Amino acid sequence: MKLSRRRPSSAVAAAALALMLPLAACGSSSDTGSGGKTLRVWHYETQDSALSKAWDAAITTFEQTHPGVKVEFERKTFDQIQQSAGMILNSDKAPDVMEYNKGNATAGLLSKQGLLTDLTQVAKDRGWAAKISDSASVPARYNDRGEMGGDKWVGVPNYGEFVLAYYDKDLFAKYGVSVPTDMAGFEDALAKFKAAGVTPLANAGNDHPASHWLYLLALSKADKKWVQDYQTFSGKIDFHGPEWTYAVETYKRWLDKGYFDKNDVGLKGSDMTEQFVSGKRPILVGGNWWFGGFKTDIKDFDWSTAVFPGSKITLGSSGNLWVVPQRSKNKTLAEDFIDITMSPEIQAMIGNNGNVPIAAQPDAITDPKSRELVGQFDQIQKSDGLGYYPDWPAAGYYDVFVSATQNLMNGADAKSVLDEIAAPYEKQAASRQ
């Protein structure tokens, strides 16, 4: 069964209405005469996800606090925005506020091109900067070269994210497999499931999950200096060194052993989640952005989450950004909308629906499963274990990783795959000299 795409439930609508009263004063005074205006909002969160529920509530609250302003909301796909943002934002069709991926190759590139509004002073004036830690704000801040960690805020994150392990506890119990706590135990679990005729790992070769696996395995052999060198070009990265070599060779070994199914090469992320939700694959390693959908859709078995046991560093960062395109026609209204998403009420909704709020009060997270998830993210943050994402350093690198991983699943040798992912990175590194 696929993850549901239902409209928000009446309970969510009621929660949104409950938010209206305490937020009634959040609109800026300049909105007094804003009747007849339109705020155009784009995001790519799937219906029933924690973030979609929160943004639905934020839109409802915005409409209540901005009489006469019409909200035109368009739900895009990640790929639609990833592939066409530059062209759209450089036209009169640009939205007023949009969710966009963070990183040098995405938000950094658009910032360098002058397509995003500088929100630095706004972030200070509205208190957003004070709510977000320095480390979490790194992917929101860029320098003039479009490299993250600079002084200019080009977007605002509302949540955190990280890649973790999801386990089907019923299948683990059925086949007598122990939930792993280290890499040796993880590989032992993979072997036992395969011996029982079960393909253990959910996967999707034609989307981010498979390339996330490569970087996750590389991080298991890396330290923080390697991560900094890789993400910021502050030191040379050897793509035939121990980190990337281990990643590609381990991935290939797991393919050969049948821990991954080679036929997953053409699947998208939603297909991967279906494998887990339907009870066909006992282990899914993926982002916490799937968590809210799992809470809604998994009815037939017990499941749990854990920090991936094979590495002290994992993929993760603050979440995607709300950005205000330079060609937005209603920038103050866009800022008002972002302000609502940073409110205590919306932040608590994010946490209680299964995501990781960036500015919520801990005692506001009442759902036990969600509180556990937030605690796991805190564990990663406290150990300085966020390693960001593999495609961030270079423009167009996301597509390179998808292609390279598909080639590996189709039988390419390790050296050619390493050469493939090295080429655009090294070109980018050379251009900085």
From TrEMBL:
Database matches in InterPro entries: Bact_solute-bd_prot1, SBP
Where does the record locate the signal sequence feature? 1-24
Highest taxon in the source lineage: Bacteria
The answer to whether UniProt assigns keyword Transit peptide to this entry is no
Reply yes or no: does the keyword Disulfide bond apply: no
- Which UniProt keywords are given for this protein, alphabetically ordered? Signal
Q: Which PANTHER family match?
A: ARABINOSE-BINDING PROTEIN-RELATED (PTHR43649)
Under which name does UniProt file this protein? Extracellular solute-binding protein
UniProt organism field:
Kitasatospora saccharophila
Q: What is the lineage of its organism?
A: Bacteria, Bacillati, Actinomycetota, Actinomycetes, Kitasatosporales
